[in-house]
Specification:
Distance between the termini: 22 Å
Helix content: 25-40%
CATH topology: Metallo-beta-lactamase, Chain A
Low-confidence stretches: 356-372
Radius of gyration: 21 Å
Order of helices and strands: EEEHEEHHEHEHEEEHEHHEHEEEHEE
CATH class: Alpha Beta
Shape: globular
Largest sheet: 9 strands, mixed
CATH architecture: 4-Layer Sandwich
Number of strands: 17
Number of domains: 1
CATH superfamily: Ribonuclease Z/Hydroxyacylglutathione hydrolase-like
Length: 372
């Protein structure tokens, strides 16, 4: 089966689509500069099921706006009956519960719309496609994640965070409790880490999951989407301490993951000197330790500041394609190609060249596919 995994150029934010012929997963919401909204960016990737735009799974790592930007439009389309999101995977952290509008910064409209939709689904407590919500927890796998869904082919899920019981009533913040999942798709493993901090890795993820027999390799992944857009806080709580340490607190996490490639979803490339590092990520203090690990484990030359293993969305959309045999990287992939292809398919459907099968797949009604 052909799969594509596309990481979009969205600045300091996250947005990724995992897609096959009959399955669409969106990981976090954001938009590129040339699109007005995340909905406009992602609509060409929707599939058709029962005549409706469909996303099988929306996986939101956590509720910050740079990870759920523009959900208001998705909510509007859901309520209008024109869009179906089969299941929403979320961290189960209610930012509204203890929010004081008189003292705290306003919650984004995107988050409020997302939280409203999750609560609607919780109230229904339904396993019907389009009404499912899954507050996934560490040690969950396909059985829990795909409950109520058609499980995609050769697609494995391993959840490593958050730990059950850790929520808005715990001592951890919503970033700490980001929903971290490893996927294995057609043999390729990839880890999405959200904005989880070094503190949570050290206090909870490593001792409560990765040190437990049978789960030691659950974080091991060929591709790592680096934490918090390349922030120092993946390695330690204090930026200066991370930068100057002999070895930062959470450096061992890289040994647990053993990545071959990094996805850096950020506004720009890692700064490679402390003088060039600003307040916002990505940070030199993080680059220093990622680069050291790749020098020590993959033979990267010290003079190669941005090795090929560092895939930057700031350089353009980063895409992985599987063609039934091999995975290949495509840098600076043009997302408008998908939009143009979707438009052509829609035109052919209007002309009667294609029809929608009951399973939601595009099925042949003429010799469009070169078959009789």
């Amino acid at each position: 089966m052909k799969y594509t995994v596309t990481h979009f150029k969205v600045g300091n934010g996250n947005c990724c689509v995992i897609k096959s012929d009959d399955f669409v997963m969106v990981v976090d919401l954001n938009k590129t500069e040339d699109k007005k909204s995340s909905y406009e960016l992602l609509k060409p990737f929707f599939r058709q099921k029962d005549g409706k735009d469909t996303i099988d799974v929306l996986y939101v790592t956590h509720g910050d706006e740079d990870h759920c930007l523009g959900f208001e439009k998705f909510k509007e389309e859901i309520d209008n009956g024109t869009l179906v999101i089969g299941s929403i995977w979320h961290q189960d952290y209610d930012k509204e519960k203890y929010h004081d509008p008189k003292k705290d910064p306003a919650l984004s409209e995107s988050y409020l719309a997302l939280n409203k939709e999750i609560k609607r689904r919780k109230d229904l407590d339904s396993s019907e496609f389009g009404d499912i919500q899954k507050p996934l927890k560490a040690k969950d796998d396909n059985a829990e994640a795909f409950d109520g869904l058609d499980e995609p082919e050769n697609f494995q899920v391993k959840v490593i965070s958050p730990i059950a019981g850790d929520d808005e009533d715990s001592c951890y913040c919503h970033n700490d409790l980001a929903l971290i999942i490893k996927f294995e798709i057609e043999g390729k493993t990839m880890l999405f880490t959200g904005d989880a901090s070094s503190k949570y890795w050290q206090e909870r993820i490593i001792p409560e999951v990765l040190d437990v027999e049978g789960y030691e390799d659950w974080a091991k992944a060929e591709i790592l989407e680096v934490g918090h857009h390349g922030s120092y806080d993946f390695f330690g709580e204090d930026r200066a301490s991370v930068r100057e340490a002999d070895e930062p607190d959470n450096y061992e996490a890289l040994d647990r993951i053993e990545a071959d490639d990094l996805i850096i979803s950020a506004e720009f490339r890692f700064p490679t000197s402390r003088d060039a590092s600003g307040d916002q990520p990505p940070h030199y203090a993080a680059w220093k330790w990622y680069h050291k690990w790749f020098r020590d484990n993959h033979g990267v030359n010290e003079s190669d500041k941005h090795p090929d293993q560092f895939k930057y969305t700031s350089d353009g959309n980063v895409r992985l394609e599987f063609d039934d045999k091999h995975w290949k990287w495509i840098k600076n992939w043009d997302h408008n190609k998908e939009e143009n292809q979707a438009r052509r398919l829609a035109e052919k459907m209007k002309q009667g060249a294609l029809s929608i099968g009951s399973g939601g797949l595009l099925s042949k009604s003429t010799a469009f596919y070169g078959e009789e």
